[in-house]
Amino acid sequence: MSASATDTAGRSSGGIWIRPALIAAIVIAVFVWINAVELDSIEQRLLATDAIVSAVVRHIQLVVISTVTVVALAVPAGIALTRRNLLSRALGPPILAIANAGQAVPSLGILVLIAVLFRALGFWPTIFALVLYAFLPILRNTIVGIEQVDESVIESAVGMGMTKRGVLRKIELPLAVPVVLAGIRTALVINVGTATVATLVNSGGLGDIVYGGIVQSRSTVLWAGALLVAALALAIDFLGGLAEDKLRPKGI
Amino acid sequence: MADSMIKLEELTKVYEGTEEPAVADLSMDVPEGEIVVLVGPSGCGKTTTMKMINRVIEPTSGRIFLEGEDVTSTNPDLLRRRIGYVIQQIGLFPHMSIRDNVATVPRLLDWDEHKIDDRVDELLELVGMDPGRFRGRYPRELSGGQRQRIGVIRALAADPPVMLMDEPFGAIDPITRERLQNEFLRLQADIKKTIVFVTHDIDEAIKMGDRIAILQDQSIIAQFDTPEEILTNPASQFVSDFVGSGAALKRMNLTRVGEVTLKDWPTARSDEKRDTLRNRLDDAEQDQLLLLDDDGRPRRWLHAQDLRTDDELTSVGEEVHGVISANSTIADALDQMLRSHYGTAVVVDDDDRYTGAVDMAVVLAAAEAMGQSAGADAQHRLADADVETTDEEQVSG
Ligand SMILES: Nc1ncnc2c1ncn2[C@@H]1O[C@H](COP(=O)(O)OP(=O)(O)OP(=O)(O)O)[C@@H](O)[C@H]1O
Ligand SMILES: [Mg+2]
């Protein structure tokens, strides 16, 4: 599970149904398979339908809440760092350095670090870790997205009398949207993976199933869990792609 | 220049982190309704000067007046909405339709959408682009020349009294550039904006400018004058170097045929007697008669031997190819002369009726009237043969 999922996610003109069909096929195959094979009691407990459903729901909660939070933090931060003022010149480099460092630490490391730092386990510390972990891609893409806007486009906007806020709202942000969205999509997919690891700090989600399978040496469970994580990542990436196409301004 | 639209007073710009000013103590008046061209070698400060007028670059010191009002420290956003702005890279908004691009300033000024729609269509038509076809397009769906036109009408949208144009036709091929220049001059004849136009191309300056400011380093004005004056009476060595070796030829572009005394060519009508015509030709210094039709339009050149035949006059001699008008320049006339067999260009009026002819004597007289002779120009240059290299740098600026 890595960010590379987004790299291959270019717009495929035809066959928009291929991905959902693949995802559905994986999910159906998993259910058919676990119903077809003989399960022992441990396996039955781990793979009970309501256990799976609540794991999926919890997993999605982790991903969505953390992503919404990180977008709400990293996009404004990215915007602020592209304003050409003293504050952004002073704060820009250290913030980027911290965000870079955060991403360089393995996800498990961050989780453990946070668990240790806050002496707490469970849902909210995990959200916190996911936010930290996804901060960089969104911050970076916001900055890059705004800075790649053609200088002459901005100059003509300023020269015609748009206010600074107007230039940001009407020119810079719309033109940065595709790059920012790509960052958000990357973050979503990263978070699906990282949230799996988060079971180790007791936050629930599909990680429970995967690690349950590992700990109890039940490869059926491990496989079922891993396939469901993959299906969820594909599904979220697919929806992200749809959103990107939808939200990309016309003309670019 | 009583009614100057833009007045610059001792404008100076020192960029942060530099010692020398990019523009030093520039004072200038731009009269209402004129195109003033800032021209000069690369890096002399043309762009800096222009951008200080709408304060995209804030001057370090000095004052700016627009329509008599001191705008040096007014709200810059409001100031800019009164000034059209066109840059070389055009800077159309790629995510907005042509309509929305053109509507930029009207929207900032809170026009209602109906008025904006009408204005956009009117402007598109003004530059020969069908509103129905182009209104809804995006910039990437236009050719370079079309984008440039949109850049110009976007600047005109709210009908500002003043326009700033920084090398607006710089980034396009020569043929399209010429077309856009002509189109813009035609447009300007109607709209009479006050325009500050930046270029590093002296030919463009001569063509576009009612007045030209030739700038030296730090935007020091070497000469601020009409193109005629600059070509005929360069104020300094710098100016004549910058104008370059073609000054005498360039002047040919300034004088119109209507401004010179034309030569009377002996004419003929098809109903006149052969004898009369032969006598007329004998008495004339020319070797041909110009045959006119009943409406006085030039038709054929008739030689002595053509008058000896009995054939219809309209079928002998040679057809007249190509005529010029009072609006043609002396350069156009020369061009026509070189292509005609007789070293003569026939001048006609708006109804294509013969009014006179231009020959070499006329051209030379015109050149003389333009003042400084080509010979003096050449001497001027010989005296300073070592300026050649810098000259090239400057012109290519
Ligand atoms: N932002 C800046 N910071 C520092 N120096 C600058 C800046 N912009 C321009 N300059 C300098 O100021 C001088 C004038 O520049 P300007 O762009 O006005 O020249 P120009 O006449 O428009 O040249 P060109 O014909 O090449 O466009 C140059 O020496 C340039 O290097
Ligand atoms: Mg320039």
Task: Quickly count the helices of chain B.
Answer: 18
CATH homologous superfamily heading of chain A: MetI-like
* CA-based gyration radius of chain B: 26 Å
Question: Which molecules are bound in this entry?
Answer: adenosine-5'-triphosphate, magnesium ion
Secondary structural class of chain A: mainly alpha
Which bin fits the share of residues in helices of chain A?
A: over 70%
Mean pLDDT across the residues of chain B is 87
- The low-pLDDT segments of chain B are 372-397
Distance between the termini of chain A: 30 Å
Tally of individual helices of chain A = 11
Q: What structural class is derived from the secondary structure elements of chain B?
A: alpha/beta
What is the residue-mean pLDDT of chain A, rounded to a whole number?
84
- Could you please say which CATH topology of chain A applies here? MetI-like fold
Q: How can the largest sheet of chain A be summarized?
A: none
Q: Report the major sheet of chain B.
A: 6 strands, mixed
Strands side by side in the biggest sheet of chain B: 6-7-8-3-9-10
The fraction of residues assigned to DSSP E strands of chain B is 15-25%
CATH class of chain A: Mainly Alpha
Report the radius of gyration of chain A as a whole number of Å. 21 Å
Broad shape of chain B: elongated
Q: What is the percent of helical residues of chain B?
A: 25-40%
